[in-house]
Amino acid sequence: MKLGIEDISLATTSLVLDLDEVAAAQGADPDKFRIGIGQDSMSIPAPDEDVVTLGAQAAQRVLHGQDLSAIRTVLFATESGVDQSKSAGVYMHRLLGLNPNARVIEFKQACYSGTGALQLALALVARNPEQKVLVVAADIARYDAGSSGEPTQGAAAVAMLISATPDVLAIEPVSGLYTQDIMDFWRPNYRSTAIVDGRYSIKAYLDSVKQSWRDYRAQGGHELSEFDHFCYHQPFTRQAVKGHATLAREGGVDAETRDAQLEHTLDYNRVLGNSYTASLYVGLLSLLDSSPDDLTGHRIGFFSYGSGAVGELFAGVVQPGYRTRSHRTEHRAAIDGRTPIDYARYFELHERPDDVDGGDHPRERGTTGPFRFAGVRDHGRVYEPTSAGA
Ligand code: COA
């Protein structure tokens, strides 16, 4: 029995900031960002966008035409959670009109948790193949303004329908795993931006690539030369290039194979920025949407990394139906349709006070998406459809 991704789609925010604006504000050479870290721009949330609205927007597309009664589990992966107790997925569940006879849970382990949710979804479907699981990975990456992490912000959500009829990608059972307790990136409860030891996090990521690969091979996984493509968690696209150079050395493939395996997997992340849990799957969509070739039968490798730190390396094979499930046109429209803002407007949005005083805080309208965060009322978050979703 094949198990895997039946449908997959992404959503991003309504606003975008070109990294030349950040370079000018920081007095940095724009090439440091475009070439040095491999990023051109980053998605910025409008005041009424958050992980719930982004997740619901991405999920709406994969739910189209589905029998919602088959979806009895919803897994929401994020490290930009909106509540310490209630899952962001429960808010999303209502917005999407999902089956009340379902379980909804939020998953957290930095940028890794989308993969954790995916693997648990596969186990649930293996146990009960007529059921489908909705997995949503959604994040808004935030670092302090003026910090070295600032140009590596971004935002996106990816929704995946996991089932025993995987029209897009059949996921293979072997995984390589690696966990170590380290402080390379984290966000304490009292902060809205992450603390990161940037250089250390790069080293820890590369170490995790190596250790996850060794475990993958020890578990009976394929040789590196058997992969047509490789998708990486991308805090910035140069990290994926560094990761794959490390893997190519470990797996003994030549430079031509190495570069071909990474082709088309970086395009979306370069313009969306970091989307934490979603970023690996944004890389997959970048490949599926951008490659001119028929990818049917191609084996794709995945490296998922969440600081702190957990790594997982696994593989999937593209299925014949992947083109019929394509949302390429909508993805391009979402990316190209973002409204450019200047550094001053970004800074204003970035520095707005968090709603932490216990009062009511309505949010001004700004999203072009189908759902909005209307604000905090009586300590609760209020979400509503917009005219774009009507
Ligand atoms: N033209 C081309 N390249 C340039 C350049 C220029 N004018 N100026 C600098 N660079 C290169 C540097 O050589 C370096 O490349 P290298 O890593 O291959 O050596 C790269 O740009 C970054 O420069 P660096 O001085 O290291 O930048 P930084 O100190 O501002 O920090 C990060 C970069 C990525 C560490 C920082 O953005 C960060 O902390 N990001 C968040 C953490 C993160 O995403 N971690 C990843 C693991 S999950």
From TrEMBL:
Segments forming domain Hydroxymethylglutaryl-coenzyme A synthase C-terminal: 173-248, 255-324
CDD domains: init_cond_enzymes (cd00827)
EC number: 2.3.3.10
Binding positions ((3S)-3-hydroxy-3-methylglutaryl-CoA): 29, 143, 242, 274
One of the Pfam families matching this protein, by short name: HMG_CoA_synt_N
InterPro entries: HMG_CoA_synt_C_dom, HMG_CoA_synth_N, HMG_CoA_synthase_prok, Thiolase-like
GO BP: acetyl-CoA metabolic process
Keywords: Acyltransferase, Transferase
Gene Ontology MF, one: hydroxymethylglutaryl-CoA synthase activity
Region (Disordered) location: 352-376
SUPFAM superfamilies referenced in this protein's UniProt entry, alphabetically: Thiolase-like
Domain Hydroxymethylglutaryl-coenzyme A synthase N-terminal: 3-163
Active site annotation, chain numbering: 79 (proton donor/acceptor), 111 (acyl-thioester intermediate), 233 (proton donor/acceptor)
Basic and acidic residues: bias regions: 352-366
NCBIfam families found in the cross-reference section: HMG-CoA-S_prok
Family the UniProt entry places it in: Belongs to the thiolase-like superfamily. HMG-CoA synthase family.
Protein name, entry field: Hydroxymethylglutaryl-CoA synthase
Organism for this UniProt entry: Mycetocola reblochoni
